[in-house]
# Entry
Amino acid sequence: MKKPSILLIYTGGTIGMVQKTGNGLSPVKFDQIMEEVPELNRLGYKLDTIAFNPPIDSSDMTPKIWAKLAKTIQRNYNRYDGFVVLHGTDTMAYTASALSYMFENLDKPVVMTGSQLPIGIFRTDGKENLITSIEIAAAQKNGTTIVPEVSVYFDNKLYRGNRVSKRHADHFSAFDSVNYPLLAKAGVDINYFTDNIYYPQNKGILKVSSVFNEHVAVLKIFPGMSREVFENIVNIPGLRGVVLETFGSGNVATASWLIRVIRKAIKGKMIFLNVTQCQGGAVRMGHYEASRKLLEAGVVSGKDMTTEAAVTKLMFLLGQGLSQDDIKLHLHKSMRGEISE
# Structure
């Protein structure tokens, strides 16, 4: 049988660091990854590597880098069975969500992973994350890819990429997906939960759309937010969209000025997308009076989307040259499994 071929793409992040001299850390040379992680030789796969130069700290991640990453995968798409993207943990959920929207007709695994400790540190979580991610990217059954979507693997768990959020800065179990179940769990064996995995209905050539509109703000509602603060943010010149992080199931204060400001902005072609501040659950606009007026004003329900998925989806749709009505239509429905149907 043909050996599985996997392309390993190192964008930057903690996982790609080794301790060279003293306490200093420096990026590993990824063309020598087999030397740093000799266990990879035992997989029996064809492994190639591409490293961004210079490596990108994930705090510096931008839509331009998302586009570079997507196009790197597109250029190599027909040469490999799967892709593993090494990325810093801080913004991994944003990149995973953005990639999911950019890829249409994806039928190969794109597994994102990283680590809390550098791969060159004795207690690193990086080796297991890397090795298992490569196994998942290569996994097939009856000649068909098992996980043909953008996913995040971390601490023995495989998540849908646009459903995950970073929940802890220090623990090895750094990520969680409260509103959507696992795609797989690794123990002695890797158990795949195929009912949770998205399998494309339409087969077609991979299409990549990589234009994002960055004129988007996240506005977290809090008790005592003043009218001046709210208006000044909404009236930022050039702003096209706002992700509202609201209380509970989508509620805001019932102050009349707040609704007037939102209604005026929407008439000016701005898009408002409502997501909950809670770690789990969904926005249910109209369930309470505190959200009914948002619905009447034209605010779109983000349902059970994460903030990361909501921000990147809004940026993506605004970048496609769609009308306000078309953008709202796409926000209402799931594009890549980011919303529970």
